[in-house]
Amino acid sequence: MTSLHEEPFTFAYEDEPARIVRGRVTRPVDAEGAPFVLVLHGFKGFMDWGFFPELARRLARAGFAAVAFNTSGSGIGPDLANFTEEAAFARDTVTRQLEDVDRVRARIDAGAFAGVDPARGGLFGHSRGGGIGLLHAAERGDYRAIVTWAAIDTVHRWDAATCAEWRRVGHVPVVNARTGQTLRMNLGALEDLERNRERFDIEAACGRLRAPTLVCHGDRDEAVDFRALQRLVDALPPGVGRGLPVAGGGHTFGARHPPQEPTPELEQVLGATTDWFRSHLA
Fold first, then answer.
1. pTM of full prediction above 0.85
2. Which domains occur in the chain, in start order?
3. Which class for 273: exposed (0-12), middle (13-18), buried (19 or more C-beta within 10 A)?
């Protein structure tokens, strides 16, 4: 079995020192110029949740450098496991998430990580991370392969009544069913969505992609409408994308936290993902 090397990294924004991104590069020990896959978590997710460590290991064993990180507004603190940065979560926005992705990509471009080839990049995103990844990839225009799992097809996911209350109170509650915590999102998140409707149009972004894109979605997804799969595939240029519907798959394809043995649905998307990157990025 391929021996793996893990390299943690941390950086803060120069103009906002409390805004911190923490990440990890997982790659083969003997990698010399390995293609990279940027790994994006979803809403209330983090790089060590559930399936992400196993995904990183499988990508690394396939010869890639998996570059995973917690966004600065994820709410996950320095222990990398708990939502201890509630203020950071509250002020998070889509714009800030895209800035985080751009900053990590800039470090890759600058050669900050040993054994990684900055010129050969792929992108993976789950749930909101899938939507953010599609927006980022369309703006960059240089990724060679993309895979999403249970990706959102729109960032506007709140109804009018919720938005009205959000404006009245100044924040909206966000319940984490796993931990029992009630976090909150400040009004800035809603205002950011309203100011940037055109930039945040995920389907329009898909129309600008040229990288081979695999869209995976479980037909029993309880969080993101299964029909998002077809909407995203239809939005991609002809011949660019392929949809993979997963029978019986939920939003996380059966994965839980702490991690357990992969379910058949998770094994299906893990295999399809590594195969996709082997075919289009290696």
1. yes
2. 4-155+198-280 (3.40.50.1820)
3. buried
CB-count burial class (<10 Å; 0-12, 13-18, 19+) for 240: middle
| Burial (CB count within 10 angstroms: exposed 0-12, middle 13-18, buried 19+), residue 184 | middle
Beta bridge partners of 273: none
Instruction: Identify any residues that bridge with 38 across adjacent strands, giving them in sequence order.
Output: 67, 123
* pLDDT, tens digit only, all 282 positions of the chain: 789 999 999 999 999 999 999 999 999 999 889 999 999 999 999 999 999 999 999 999 999 999 999 999 999 999 999 999 999 999 999 999 999 999 999 999 999 999 999 999 999 999 999 999 999 999 999 999 999 999 999 999 999 999 999 999 999 999 998 899 999 999 999 999 999 999 999 999 999 999 999 999 999 999 999 999 999 999 999 999 999 999 999 999 999 999 989 999 999 999 999 999 999 998
